[in-house]
Write a structure and sequence with these properties.
By secondary structure, this protein is mainly beta. It has one helix and ten strands; from the N terminus they run βββαβββββββ. The termini are far apart. 26% of the residues are buried.
Length: 133
């Protein structure tokens, strides 16, 4: 599937070819801290499948819970998280779901690091919901 995306301010833009079956939810504490949310949704693809079309992202190196270094790519202007890739694994890229324009067509297929999941995460459907303000 061909996708395109951008940061919130539109400075960093990209295009990519992805497999929609490779969308996952990660509950690890790093994803929680880096997003300020209970989990992060990412689609994994080959690094060669990502083509930058706008300004370059900034990169932050973080040693993950599993001991490996992960490089977090984000917009230096608005701070939007965009990508991740691992040390020594340049072809394993994760594109952050929120930056993808076609994200409504991408449904998660698996969950990772569930032992770190917020204890209430399975109860979201029971909460009162409003369609928007």
């Amino acid at each position: 599937m061909r996708i395109d995306g951008r940061c919130h301010c539109g400075r960093v833009t990209y295009e990519a070819e992805i497999d929609p079956e490779r969308v996952s939810v990660c509950h690890c504490t790093d994803c929680q801290s880096l997003t300020g949310s209970p989990y992060r949704v990412t689609v994994i693809c080959d690094g060669d499948a990502v083509r930058m079309t706008g300004a370059s992202a900034r990169v932050y190196a973080k040693t993950a819970d599993n001991g490996r270094t992960r490089y977090q790519h984000f917009c230096g202007e608005c701070g939007s998280p965009l990508f991740t890739h691992g040390e020594g694994v340049p072809d394993d890229w994760g594109i952050r779901w929120g930056s993808i324009r076609q994200r409504g067509a991408l449904r998660p297929r698996r969950q990772l690091w569930c032992r770190s999941a917020a204890p209430w995460i399975g109860e979201l459907a029971e909460l009162p919901a409003r369609p928007g303000d």
